[in-house]
Design brief:
With 455 residues, the chain is α/β, with parallel strands linked by helices. Bound molecules: uridine-diphosphate-N-acetylglucosamine and calcium ion.
Length: 455
Amino acid sequence: MTTLGTALIVLAAGQGSRMLSGLPKVLHEVGAQPLLAHALGAGAALDPERVVVVTGHGAARVEAAVGAIAPGAVTVRQDRQLGTGHAVAQARPALADFGGDAVVLYGDTPFIAPQTLRRMAEARAAGNDVVVLGFEAREPGRYGRLITDGDRLDRIVEFKDATETERAVRLCNSGVVMARAATLFDLVAAVGNDNAAGEYYLTDIVQIANARGLRCGAVTCDEAETLGINTRAELAGAEAVFQARRRAEVMAAGVTLVAPDTVFLAADTVFGRDVVVEPNVVFGPGVRVAEGARIRAFSHLEGAQVGAGAVAGPYARLRPGTRLGAGARIGNFVETKNAALGDGVKVNHLSYVGDAEIGAGTNIGAGTITCNYDGVLKHRTVVGTEAFIGSNTMLVAPVSVGDRAMTASGSVITADVPAEALALARARQQNKPGLAVKLRARLLAIKAGLARKAE
Ligand code: UD1
Ligand code: CA
């Protein structure tokens, strides 16, 4: 193993024209995370000391994403996409002082396994100057072909430039390359563009290295790892692969998925043991569900923390900033956003709780709404512990309700309610004896009159 550390060079300048998208290809998402984040996550297996992302199409947006995903990474721009070799060359200034190995990854190839990259590092340590990751393709199609000679890699031919014999080779190039950074840049600098595509091919470094007496080798992996995304259909295929893998992982870690194929997970979803997820639940980014909690059918969660033993759903929507305490209950058709609900809080039916803090043990009656938005500003609602909010209460924020206080059903609460007080904020009821019968008779007479006129 090299003791000088590793640098990642992630190629992310391509347009992805077949996506037909305004969004740079590497920012399309799998598991609620950009493809680029998956590529960087795969590279993290090598514990890289430096990360350089080569941007081009949509550079500003890709750079912003890199800043959010991997704040320590450097971005360099490839203004014109003249080929993969040219793209790698752009990373040279950023790694001029770097003595370790460099690994080239593609930003649109999310599934390279950590173990595969470690095997490449082993092949480097075993005496190969350049290590290329290949795979046996079921349908080699337009992939570059690895031409081997025993355990040596002789050269890589691009499909466009290959002869019939070379095209018959099924060992294909994934694009992942590992070499000492200085060696890689020296080789790339020698690449020309005299080929069928008129591009500077990274793949040409193999032939150049061999001509210089360096040793090149190939490591192979499963084709599923090298899956690159070029179209929306491939994006959907990658999502399916990702979901299948994550479902298996969470079940292996002690989570019950009643109908795994109907549960959609994000790359960063975290579950404690004995969590049960019922059918048809979607997890957006940033969800943590603690031990023993239950997410009931048809719920949608993002940016939410669910406490131990809590129950959400069926048909619950937990939006970003939701924190449910231990044993809390969120029932059907309840939406929460930026809301901290203490232990044992119950919001069982048809409510919106937003920009709120609800103390432990409080019960929020059916149809309660925090009126948090005045059309311009958002305001907070604070409810104490062991309070009881009557059904159909409008909590017009900013407003607070004290510990053990109550609000009467149908109240529109516009002023703070002190602890232990009962707030009644609705019109007093009047009963008019016999008036229902009279009213009905009058209405029937009007209806009969209308019918006569129509004849
Ligand atoms: C490349 C390989 C091919 C391999 C295939 C695997 C070369 C010459 N060919 O072909 O052997 O089988 O990948 O998928 O390397 N990119 C840039 N700047 C550029 C060109 C490309 O950043 O100027 C990026 C793209 O955004 C993409 C990656 O490099 O992420 C690969 O480029 P692409 O054009 O898709 O290469 P292929 O033709 O598929
Ligand atoms: Ca490609």
